[in-house]
Amino acid sequence: MQPEHKLSFINRLRIMRETRFGAFVPVLLALAAIWTYFGLAVPLWEYWGDPDAENIRFIFLSPRNIYNLFMQSAVIATLAVGITVVLLLGDIDLSAAATAGVCAALLGVLVLAGVPGPLACLIVMGVGIVMGTAQGVLVAYVGIPSFVVTLAGLLGFQGLMQKILPTGNLNVGDPFVRGFARVLLPDALGWVLALTCIVVFVWMSLRRQAQRKARGLELDSTAAVWGQIVFFGALMLATVATLNSYRSVPLLIVLLMAITALVGWITTSTPYGRSIFSVGGNPESARRVGMNVKRIRVSAFAIVGLMAAIGGIFGASRFGSVSYTAFAGGSLLLESIGAAVIGGTSLFGGRGSVWNAILGALVIGSLGNGLDLSGASAADKLMFSGAILLLAVAIDAVSRSGTSER
Amino acid sequence: MSEHENKVGLRAPPAHLRVSGIHKRFGGVHALRGVDFEVARGEVMALVGDNGAGKSTLMKVLAGAHAADEGQFFMDEAPVSVNTPHDASDLGIQIVYQDLALCENLDVAANLSLGAEPVKPGWSFLPQLLRPLDDLEMEVKAQAAIDRLQVRTLKSVRAKVGGLSGGQRQAIAIARAVGADGSVVMLDEPTAALGVAQTRQVLDVVKRLRDTNHAVVYISHNMRDIFEVADRICVLRHGGNVATWRKDETTPDEIVVAMTRGLDDEAGNAA
Fold it and tell me: In chain A, which stretches have pLDDT less than 50?
């Protein structure tokens, strides 16, 4: 009895993860669990445990904290989106955070030397692409495993960052660079943006359904279509309402969403994206249908380099400074790989989504934020993050073995 | 040439793909020693032989994966040259390898149009690789391909290949090969790893291919399958032809003997 029951559970898990929205479920559950724990359980526990308390203080779920949470997770999310693209190929990039560090340091130095902000950002993004491409060439054409190439990249770029920043710290005061994190959209504009997104989403869903009907293809159930619309709408409105009730929607978050939407669209809806999934699923198959597997690999590493550079710019903008520990030397790398994996992107390649990486980044960010608020030590934070990461990879491995055993 | 070959040759349908005098050497090994082979539209030609007889080598030569050292190729009796896989697929020669090479993480429709994805019109300012996929068109095409082969057990072209049975996967690999304007389809041991019901499904697909006027080359060790689907049976041994039989005029025993001992011992028996 026992094994049969277990098998059916794994099968159900596997089936669920193969549907388009089902893939969001595990990470959403993780997020809900963390938010419930830190947002409701901890305050209630303190309220009941302390007779002097006058009212419950929902610190974690306060608009102010949610705002900070989003800003804290933004850099992790940017890197995680890039890393997801490489993970889809079945490769890994350990150098993303170090690349971001080099780019941020370079940005700081350039701005200090008087290069205008926009130009400095473009230069830095170019440098990021070059760094990614160089590693991609070593992986695809020389045939060194990506783990080794990017491990070497991690060490080398850490050193490079120290060369650029001998003091280990540099303040960035350029108004353009600082603007990403400082500029806030007016409340009304935030609402307009959210409503526009919802209208477009509804229009696209319904048009797609109508086209399917016209072509005689099987239809998604009406409940599923409207469920997605309601879910998406509620998420957008709740986010904007929360952010507006503290300050308002920051430009950084809008940019992050726009970039993620673009990368998401490229990976799921273009022949190029299809080839990434195909190489990740079965490189031999991709080769036989005439895809240039090597070039696809290199381009994915170029994307991760670009995303790392953008992450570096965002980081410099948010912190107002570039420091060795905030990028290359800190926990950014493992947090962003963790975010991608917790989001449900498979380390074995071929399965995942950049949107899941955003949710994964929120999980990592929430965990750190919540533990900070409840006064946990850095040691506790590390151990909790480890446990969550292990759980996410276990879910991936279990749902994967379900498919390969056939 | 044996008497059998002549008999068959006189009554055989006009060949669609014909090769003659194929030689292939790998270093010191003479893998194919002047092999003749042909297949007509609307027939299933079984290619059998013991291990090392040269079946796979011949198939790879036909598919352009190996270039023949000597020999001629004819498509509908017009001489052609096949030196690369690209040449072969341009001529409509498609091969379904034993490992199928499907992407398990993608759905059936995506697998069927892999490498030749349809894109929506009107985005010509973008490079080909970044134009939006027309996934509805993809599904329509996939559904048509599946319907043509009558794969009845497949519920949806949006099902992930990773969740399909072995027979369904084989059918999809065949559909992918045929879909690209294939007129000659070569199947390498398509039922080797399948159970009874799955084998039945694949054999139905093979018959369906014959009914849709494809030329099918069927490599297998399984006599029961061969005698069920094949119209003619070509036996190779030690890199050369033994003979080609019509299925109706031979028996599994005769084929097995021809595979293992050649024709000399059996000439009297078969005549």
Answer: 1-5, 402-406
